[in-house]
Amino acid sequence: MDIFCIRGGTPLHGRIALHGAKNAALPLLAATLATGARCELLDCPDISDVTAACAILRHLGCAVEQHGGIVAVDAGSACRSDIPAELMRKMRAAVLFLGPLLARFGTAELSLPGGCVLGARPIDLHLRGLRRMGAEITLDGEHISARTDGLHGCTVALPLPSVGATENLILAALGCRGTLTLCNAAREPEIGDLIAFLRACGADIRGEGSLLRIRGGVPLTGACHTVLPDRMEAATYLAAAAATRGDVTLTNVRPEHLTAVLAALERAGCTLTQQNGSLRLQCSRLRAAGPIRTAPYDGFPTDAQAPLMAAMAVAEGVTVFEENLFENRFRHVPALRALGAHIHAARRYAVVTGVRELHGASMTATDLRGGAAMVIGALCARGESELAGTAHLKRGYAELVPTLRACGADITER
Question: Which ranges does the record mark as transmembrane (predicted)?
Fold first, then answer.
C-alpha cells in the first residue's frame, strides 16, 4: 500500500497521543552501540527509519528485539565495523554510526547516507571534527573509510550548530583519551535527550547548551530510557488542525519545545490551551502568521516549515517563508500549487497568498515533511486527492492514517 486517498473538507476533532521522536530515537539507537551493553528504549516510534537503524545494529552483530514501542539492544555482541551501502542508503541518520564505531572498534567502513533529498547536507563537519580527534578518514566517491589508533580529547569549534555533527562527535568522544570540548554545539531537545541517556549509562558529560565537555574512557553500562515526544509530529498535527479549522488536543507533548511554532500559530489566530500535560488547538478563522524564518533551535524549525506553509495556503493574507537551513526545502510547493495554492517561490523565499479553498489533486511526496504538507493540503481541499510516495511519510510518522481517521479525516491507504 503506497497511495493515500484523501477526501478533504472535514475539520479535525479529537485527541492525539504523540509518539517518541524520530530525531531522538535514531541517535539513541546509534548510542547503544557505543555502550557495549544492553539498553532499552521505550516509546520508540514504529517507523521505517527505526527499522533501518535496527537492521544496521543487527548487521553489526548486536541483538535487537522490538515489541510495540520498546526496542531492546544488546550491543555486547557487536563484532564488525562495516555497514553496507544498501543499509546506509535507507536513511540520512545512518552516518551517526560513524562516531560509535570509531569509539568502540577504532575503525569504520561505510558509505554516504541516504534519506530525503533536501539539497546539500554535507558531512564535512562530522569528518573535520573526527579528524581533529585523531581519526584518519578517506572519502573515495561515496565510500568512507575511517580508522584510528586511539581518539584523543581536544577542542572542536563547529562553524555552525550542526545537529548531526554534534551527535556524532559526542558519541565518538565516549571512546577518546581525555576530554572533548565541543563549542557551538547544536541545542535541539533531541540532543539533550541523547545526553540524558548517555549520563544514565554513566557517561561524564558536562555543560549544557552550546558548550559541552565529554570525558572519554569512562566505563558505560546499559540503561532504560523513554524517548522524547516528537515535536515535529506535534507541529504537523497542529498545522493540520489549523488548516481544517479544527479542534485537536495533543497528549504526551512538551510545549516548551514548540515555542516558535506555537507563537506562529497564535499569530495566525489559533487558540492554544495547555493543561495537565496536554496542548489543545482550536481554530475557526485562520490568518497569515507573518514572516516565518527557519533557524536552529530555538528558532522556527525547518521541519515545520512545509506543514505550516500548507496551512497558510488557506489563511487570510500573505505569509512569507524564509528557508535558511536547506536550499532545496520547497519541493512541496508544486504539489500545493496543484491543489490550487497561490505560492511564489524563489531561492530561499516563498510568498504564500492564502485562498478561500483548495481542490483535490494527484501528488507525489518527495520527502518526509513535504509529504506531510501535501496531506494537510488535501485534508482541507474540496474533493478527493491521491498522494503517492508515501514511503517518505512512513520514515517519520507512526500510524499517520489511523490517527487522522480517529480525528474525523476521510483518508484511506491502498
Answer: none
pLDDT number for residue 196:
98
Q: What is the pLDDT of residue 116?
A: 43
For residue 236, how far is the Cα from the chain centroid?
A: 12
Please identify which of the residues 39, 54, 62, 116 carries the catalytic annotation. Answer: 116
Asked if 198 contacts 226 with a C-beta cutoff of 8 angstroms, the reply is no
Domain 22-226 has CATH 3.20.20.480: no
Q: Locate the domains of the chain by residue range.
A: 4-18+229-413, 22-226
What are the pLDDT digits (tens) for 175-224?
A: 999 999 999 999 999 999 999 999 999 999 999 889 999 999 999 999 99
CA distance 21 to 338: 31
Q: What is the mean pLDDT of the chain?
A: 95
pTM of the shown model: 0.95
To the query of whether residue 116 is one of the catalytic residues in this protein, the response is: yes
Q: Is the preceding peptide bond at 46 cis, omega within 30 degrees of 0?
A: no
Q: Which of 135, 138, 130 is nearest to 147 (CA)?
A: 135
* pLDDT band, residue 78 (cuts 50/70/90): very high
Ligand-binding annotation for 11, yes or no, is no
Residue 82 labelled as part of a binding site:
no
